[in-house]
């Protein structure tokens, strides 16, 4: 089963490689991993999307907790939560008709065009992974030059929160 | 705060290093110098509180530090230079990681300005060691040095112990600042649990008292957590049978009648059969290693399991347990004993009597028997004699192979911290440096190293260290001219195709010992074994290397073959 795990860890050099190393050394799946400092600059927050049986995911959370730099974690899967991912997509739109159609698609998916040249657009789009997939699918008729996806971020709904 | 633990005038990183070690109460550092640690060596030279032991290879330094730690209640400390010094130390660090040995290993590093430049003797020590340390640090500023050392000792020795590496660039040891060694440390990201959860303790007590065919299975955690007194009280109170893992030997007195011997691949028939038929298993400070469980599908098919371990990731990793208790062995056992008293219930005496009767039948198999009339020296006999002649009071280290198993089976440990070996990594070469570390921790004790002719050659250079420091070790080389454990597997599972397991061109160990300044004795007749051991023990001031030419064809029995269940042992 797919799990989304949020981790608060010390914002120290090497902390990221400890987590990445743990996943490769123990052969755990890793679908995506995002990390950035939080409002408290001494802390980083990481979101890991992984999959495995209950036993494996239990080991993953225990092994993450065992890392000295990890302060706290939350398996979001156990709670109502929100997931978001962002993509930046560069498409080639040399004809006026193409530009029109690309703009229309971006609007439908609530994307925004954030860069325009005479024959390219960069579209910014945010949502759940499946929405991003659908948008990319819809863009099929155009030559897509680049796709940059951020990986998933997550936050629990309501009172549940991951903080120290 | 003691006067050495702070300095209001600026001192160098190298001096801070020495003062910090003094503040930690470190008595001895095992190490080897080189460019990146020269400032540190100079500072060590100019003080006299922390002594330094010069080994002959950095692997030996780390193993010696392990031997020191495993046999005492102090962490081991090693110091090596950057680059090759650090890479030579890796095997020891990995060994300590697998067996949870509290160790602080200091590695020199190239100056901070050169890090990442492929500088002379640069390796990414923090990167290389990351997968085999409990934690590691790179100190980039002299102001962080004292606190980092404090953290390193704290992390290494608390919770589930393990090795911590502190990588110190050369310029950090030259820079100066004021020094204050922290008296205590708090890390928001590291809070090991000590006491067990009350509700879980209660559940465990109920399950324990409900048993008809109970079994207690304990491991290295009892030794590491100083839990053997509490374990003995707990076990005697219940009257249940008990077995120890290879790492847990001495955690419960081997001479006690409730003790069934070691379990696992080369454990006793009675211990493994009792495990297999148990209805309640009480696992304490043991990690269900595959050498213990055999085929996991067939492991303890009837048992409800209580598991006490300080590391949550050890619990339900290999075997799903019913009552997990996260906590330290000692306090949890005390809570369990109290829980038993408060519960007031008693074990089912009738069921227990039937159970013991069954166990006695298994014991009657006499699974450790061996030929007593052989014309060749039986390796088991050598260990048994050594045990008798030292009254079971020696500290015993071993290497890895058949001799290790015979040492574990035939030296019967009544006390913890006396049996020092490599279980998790199974590192050939540890025996001699382990023994050095033990002798430094216990200068007056008899320290024996039970080894094989192949293993001993992996760190043989340390005989030179032993001469320099006049360590009167007793080395018992069970010389079968074979990589015996490999040969045994080839005999059993590869139809006797002995690929590369014969040790041709062995050195003359007597001359070798003598060349290093020690006493060497070769023993070829069973009748001379006892006399030779006595002579070695009588030589109180000298290292004696006893080279026993043993029966080459001897195998370790009993044995659970790979993939089999605990009730499917190969017997003699
Ligand atoms: C050739 C060879 C053959 C072997 N054959 C066998 C065999 O037949 N039988 C056998 O048993 N082993 C055998 N081994 C050893 C085996 O590989 C494992 O090393 C061993 O079984 C592990 O022992 P353990 O379960 O006691 O765990 P250890 O490695 O000693 O781990 C200790 C456990 O206790 C926990 N712990 C630590 N401190 C505390 C504390 N204070 N409180 C609570 N918990 C704590 C730790 O978290 C860990 O889970 C063999 C090894 C070799 C090299
Ligand atoms: C460093 C290392 N290399 C290889 C092995 C694999 N191995 C395990 S036991 C063994 C043979 C050990 O021979 P010896 O020391 O003579 O002991 P014996 O089994 O003959 O008693 C080998 C090669 C190991 N455990 N460690
Ligand atoms: Mg041999």
Mean of residue pLDDT of chain A? 96
Alpha-beta classification of chain B? alpha/beta
Mean pLDDT of chain B: 97
The biggest sheet of chain A amounts to: 5 strands, antiparallel
Which spans of chain A of ≥5 residues are poorly predicted at pLDDT below 50?
none
Structural class of chain A: alpha+beta
Q: Which percent bin holds the helix content of chain B?
A: 25-40%
Indicate the proportion of strand residues of chain A. Answer: 35-45%
- Morphology of chain A: elongated
Number of helical stretches of at least 4 residues of chain A: 4
Stretches with pLDDT under 50, minimum 5 residues of chain B:
none
Ligand list: flavin-adenine dinucleotide, thiamine diphosphate, magnesium ion
Number of strands of chain A: 9
- According to DSSP, the number of beta strands of chain B is 20
Largest sheet of chain B: 6 strands, parallel
Cα Rg of chain B: 24 Å
- Global Rg of chain A: 19 Å
Question: Would you kindly provide a written description of the structure presented here, covering whatever features stand out?
Answer:
The complex is a heterodimer of chains A (164) and B (572). Chain A has 164 residues and is an alpha+beta fold. Chain A contains four helices and nine strands. In chain A, the strands form two sheets. In chain A, strands 5, 6, 7, 8 and 9 form a five-stranded antiparallel beta sheet that branches. A four-stranded antiparallel beta sheet of chain A has the order 2-3-1-4, with helices on one face. In chain A, a hairpin with a 3-residue loop joins strand 6 and strand 7. The radius of gyration of chain A is 19 Å and the shape is elongated. The model of chain A has no long low-confidence stretch (mean pLDDT 96). Chain B is α/β, with parallel strands linked by helices and 572 residues long. Helices cover 37% and strands 17% of the residues of chain B. Chain B is built from 21 helices and 20 strands. In chain B, the strands form four sheets. A six-stranded parallel beta sheet of chain B has the order 3-2-4-5-7-6, with helices on both faces. A six-stranded parallel beta sheet of chain B has the order 11-10-9-12-13-14, sandwiched between helices. A six-stranded parallel beta sheet of chain B has the order 16-15-17-18-20-19, with helices on both faces. In chain B, helix 12 links the parallel strand 12 and strand 13. Chain A binds chain B through residues 9-10, 13-14, 17-18, 21, 25, 55, 58-59, 62-63, 65-66, 68-71, 164, and chain B through 126-127, 130-131, 134-135, 138, 155, 187-190, 311-313, 316-317, 320. Bound molecules: flavin-adenine dinucleotide (FAD), thiamine diphosphate (TPP) and magnesium ion. Residues 99-100, 160, 219-221, 224-225, 245-248, 262-267, 285-287, 289, 291-292, 309-311, 314, 328-329, 400, 404, 423-424, 426, 485 of chain B line the site of flavin-adenine dinucleotide.
